[in-house]
User: Fold this.
Amino acid sequence: MKILLVFAHPEPRSLNGALRDIAVAELQNQGHEVRVSDLYADRWKSEVDRADFPSLPPDARFKPAAASGEAFAADALTGDVRAEQGKLLWADVLILQFPLWWYGMPAILKGWVDRVYAYGFAYGVGEHSDRHWGDRFGEGTLAGKRAMLLVTTGGWETHYSARGINGPIDDLLFPINHGILYYPGYDVLPPFVAYRVDRLDQAAFEPIAKRLRERMRTLATTSPIPYRRQNGGDYLIPNLQLRPGLEDFGASGFALHLNRAGTAG
Amino acid sequence: MKILLVFAHPEPRSLNGALRDIAVAELQNQGHEVRVSDLYADRWKSEVDRADFPSLPPDARFKPAAASGEAFAADALTGDVRAEQGKLLWADVLILQFPLWWYGMPAILKGWVDRVYAYGFAYGVGEHSDRHWGDRFGEGTLAGKRAMLLVTTGGWETHYSARGINGPIDDLLFPINHGILYYPGYDVLPPFVAYRVDRLDQAAFEPIAKRLRERMRTLATTSPIPYRRQNGGDYLIPNLQLRPGLEDFGASGFALHLNRAGTAG
Assistant:
């Protein structure tokens, strides 16, 4: 397979750097082709602004979605964005690797999403009608590919557990897994999370490295998170609310959008 | 009161720009002192990197949290970051205004958080013991102040409702409201959200503007979201899990951390 790893840590000599090297080596050992987008090394531009759309007239009001759609359609996006889109189309599997900062992605990675996910590429794709609300949430440009997160946290695993003060890790990552990866079509694998990494010694590192190698060996066979397809019948259109009675017993919030029975979607 | 509004939209002639002007005018009409941090206009630097810590030796491994703590303690953070920290200390109320992009903040605003929220300022504050896990989640540098989000979305309100495909807006904003605002001590007011803003005509704009003016008039009196204080007895320390039986009937996920009865915390 072809794998793209997007790396968002400023220090190569970090735990994140070590985990990246382990992931890449294991994937190459398995015969996969691997490319890495190292956002800090590449000095990735984080901010969506007018400079992203050189064809926009200087006095025109800047509407980010409209400008993005027009530039994508005219093949006029900037070179850095087009290069990343090319890598996404090339790769069978996307891995986003980052330290969890303030319960989300570092700004540089959010900026990669904000800029690379152009209108017409990652959203605004497909028919909009009373039966089909765009190709998204299970359909789209990147359908048929797989994606997963590789995340480190300073906090303890219990702090991110079902009753932990930070909120459950799966809920904290839902806006990324569902809203950024599932949205343009990826099948989303459960995240790899390493907790309490700030004071990690070699003895604690080894089991994490072993677990990561195992995940890299099973990318093709791991079952994706069973999110529900938007246009598969589970949602009313256009209000996009889950039809009554479909949810798991007692489920609410983000968990409504899982179909653990695997019979629909 | 003193109000700081942090504005994160690239186009002043946008709906966000119009809402900002309405908010500022209404606050000034009420006699408040208002400052605006316009991140795009100020060309805010989004990425946490070595350049943020000029005193870090060039060959030292860059550990973001440690570097942040050392620079904060030595008053050696960069001028842009110190200026924003000064504004946070000055303001009685913080408003973060942004368009919801990919279910979160634009990168430039995430970068404001990542850089301004230094170790020793917004985290790593206070005693760490078996009874008190740092001054955070209800305590901290910014305790006694209020904060709220002012957010616009392209999607419909039903898409962000309890059963909506995007997930409930309160859950999508929890990592910001709880993880970024409540964490360093703010009392967090319910967010102001304007939906479906992409094709808004004047008739649809007026009720939104009216609702926003009303929220600006009631900043001091609106009840905060009743999050539970970390060190108030509701959580076991150090695992930071909510004690059994405290939650609202049937609550799970992020909602566990609300105390709607208002009797504890």
Observations:
- The two ends of chain B are 26 Å apart (CA to CA).
